[in-house]
Amino acid sequence: MAVISRGFFGRKREENPELPPGQYLTEDFPVLSAGPTPVVDLADWTFSIQTESGEVHAWNWEQLNALPQEDIHTDIHCVTRWSKLGTTWSGVSLDTLFAGVDTTNAYVMVHSYGGYTTNMPLADLMDGKAWIATSFEGEPLDPEHGGPARLLVPHLYFWKSAKWVHGLRMVATDDPGFWEQNGYHIYGDPWLEQRYW
């Protein structure tokens, strides 16, 4: 069952060159989840990248936070039509995490605590396009927004920025994840309004 906060319905679309087509500007941060918020103890938290060979690269919470941190200033766009401009996050670049990972597969399946999945091309995680975010607006990431850590892929609709991220699995084909199996677009470019199939 989806969890929806106020702010998802009844807003007027806006004509603003900073907004993708069909989006409206919000000042708050609405919450939409595919299920209940998982409780993740930092002592048990891990993030991993599994390659097609079965090799696993893994980090616990302390190891992740010991890696170089980046501040990210970006706009975010939800498929439910809200956009939030000028947000500030911090986290670890996927470029850093993929250093030393040997893969020839072109796609990734993202896995979250709680069972959520989403798919995307590996190219959309590299070259400064994606992070494992651990803070928002200078504060630790709230559980309702994906804390302790979420994937942040701001150039795609926000369902691709998986909350409570647990790991990435390299795959050979772009098979659909949770929302993609339920009618959402396989890619999700907000500027092309790739909302649904």
From TrEMBL:
Parts forming coiled coils: none
Pfam families, per the entry: Oxidored_molyb
CDD domains noted in UniProt: arch_bact_SO_family_Moco
Domain of life: Bacteria
Boundaries of every Oxidoreductase molybdopterin-binding domain copy: 35-179
Name of the protein: DMSO/TMAO reductase YedYZ molybdopterin-dependent catalytic subunit
